[in-house]
């Protein structure tokens, strides 16, 4: 009889661990049918029966069990394997799977009590299992490391693993390897949450610190905003565990992004900011940092320090500066981390780690979250996985209702778009919090993917300390006011187990308060032995002037060397005929046989900088080719669509060239590039909008970071924005880059706004951005039609002998003494004015261009005006409507620098709510009128 039983065990696809084998095999079949044996393909196909959905795995096992019973019918009956028992086993398998899928919905992970009713399919009776089955042995699929257990114990284990203080959400992940890894981590040790005694005592100390700083500030600075962490104190043990654990795993740097809540707590208890320094900020006696003119409120400020980790290994931790726009810091942190990883070189993604801390309502409500998540696994923006921590207050802003805050079950559901696992953990169970933190950390380092810790907690106070939350949340706050703090609950737990006495717990509180009173550092030891290697990399740019001299010209030999290297393609590389023509023209340009166009000059700017060992990073939605098909920096082989980037193959010792067509995002990508540029002063970082006004979608980044980051926080950056701009009849959304908005933001020499009109000008402007000892954002109104305009050309000599000209004066042979009217403009309209002036042979009209609108070149402007002794009229001509463009933001510069006898007049479109008309015929009429009014002072011309 034993031989017959052995035969059944060996041959049945259902018996014992074979059930798990079949499920795993079926998962492989669903992902790739060819990955399993043909015989299994046939069987699975029969069961799948053409369904366009994933057949649940347990019915597959049940079907094979039925086949096994049919083939081994007499043997099965002999040994007690009935059709009923097989169905029961299949039911148990479905129940186990359902706990994995939905157990998080009934987890006891809410400090305020369970809010979701248990779904009916979590009841064993739903699967036909009843009390008599509770003591029956069933196959577990290796649950808790045991093959077979009574159903009663199986359910008890499942509830402990999936329905306790941790709700694990991971079955949406399609990667079988990742799912198996998580299952093994959660189930093999029953999610053992017990910490070692020393770890428990340290956790209590951290909770004491988290609570202590808040109570100290509350009592010492009554009524002042601090956006306290009270109710979410477990954030501090999470961050401590991450910094120490990552340090032990070889991480050198951690960059943290977070909004207001708990920020001061993190600064003091994790990064080691001096309490005395924080108290001075509350008192208003803290001095401004170098380069800062306005400063910012204390709960926006950043900080960095070196923290000791196991073995004495230092980890540099940076908390990024953040405005009130909450989650907008996310792509900025990712960009900074990417730059640091690039700087670190090989394995940089595992030596620099991003941590993002979110609010629950913001995580589900703000689109920048989706953009940042979507960037996480792309070539241009991947940082090898981010640890996300959601401080889940369960109401977001105090007055909000979750029913109004989102349309999903969890605030974290947006993370499922990248199949990130989410661990919903009870903030009042510090042991569970530490377990989840270790799991998230290991997941990130193992798979280099994002992971989410949903710290379910509450606000003990309102949104800020002046808010009274019970006015809008009366029932919730009746419950909250009866709750003991997390520290008190944990202290009582340790006292009950005899690990600590009540007196020792009280002493911990008192000692912490004494340190605060003394203004001493209360975090882990902050290492001060030597400066962080990159701390001073921006210092040489402090106090520099935009007029700082530099030579941007390049020798003829260098230009021809770069062009020659950019023409060398891999053997068998077949270009598109139009691209081949462009490359052939560039050969002629380098030889001096053709005038230089925009694409040639721009590529030469990048190439020459790279050969001088500067780095270049260019991103945007169509930058490889260029939206207007002018750049062709990335070439596509017409035979197999593989790409080749000549700028990467100029010289063996060149700088790093990164050119990526980005995802369809403005705010996320621009924020990322800003973060990158604040970290790498010797990298030319460029973001190009597909059309200039597409930058509207990133206005928060422009307002809160690019234009004001230095005056608020002392954060310098070198970012270049290329914004295609020009009125060419393409309608309201494809004409204006909204020049007026950038000029409105200009003050204190915070950034540069330029409108180059020749290939040589873009060549020198881009090179100047790196070669000068000056680092400010550069906003470029880049052209569209000028990319191929017959007059918008340059010569090789313009590159070898010239420089960027903030003002370009009259270029034709006109007698200055006869000029009575000076028309000044910026951008494309210059060529319309020039062609009409030449056609009408106007000898008394001079035309000049301002190529740099800010900082305004006063001296050069005055010098240009001074060339014309008989000048009576100064005309500012622009394509944009009068309430837009440069007129209102620049005319005070004109007035300040014009003589009293010279009149000043505006020539351009009338004020308009929209930037441009949609009708092409009307556009042509308007453009002609603009030119006529500038040259003649009236619309009719002569």
From TrEMBL:
Q: State the SUPFAM superfamilies in the record.
A: Thiamin diphosphate-binding fold (THDP-binding)
Which PANTHER family does the annotation name? 2-OXOADIPATE DEHYDROGENASE COMPLEX COMPONENT E1, 2-OXOGLUTARATE DEHYDROGENASE
According to its UniProt entry, this protein's organism is Methylobacter tundripaludum (strain ATCC BAA-1195 / DSM 17260 / SV96)
Residue ranges of every copy of the Transketolase-like pyrimidine-binding domain listed in the record: 596-789
Q: What is the recorded name of this protein?
A: 2-oxoglutarate dehydrogenase E1 component
Note whether Oxidoreductase occurs among the keywords.
yes
What does this protein do, in the record's words?
E1 component of the 2-oxoglutarate dehydrogenase (OGDH) complex which catalyzes the decarboxylation of 2-oxoglutarate, the first step in the conversion of 2-oxoglutarate to succinyl-CoA and CO(2).
This entry's Gene Ontology molecular function terms read: oxoglutarate dehydrogenase (succinyl-transferring) activity; thiamine pyrophosphate binding
Q: Which CDD domains match?
A: TPP_E1_OGDC_like
Name the protein family.
Belongs to the alpha-ketoglutarate dehydrogenase family.
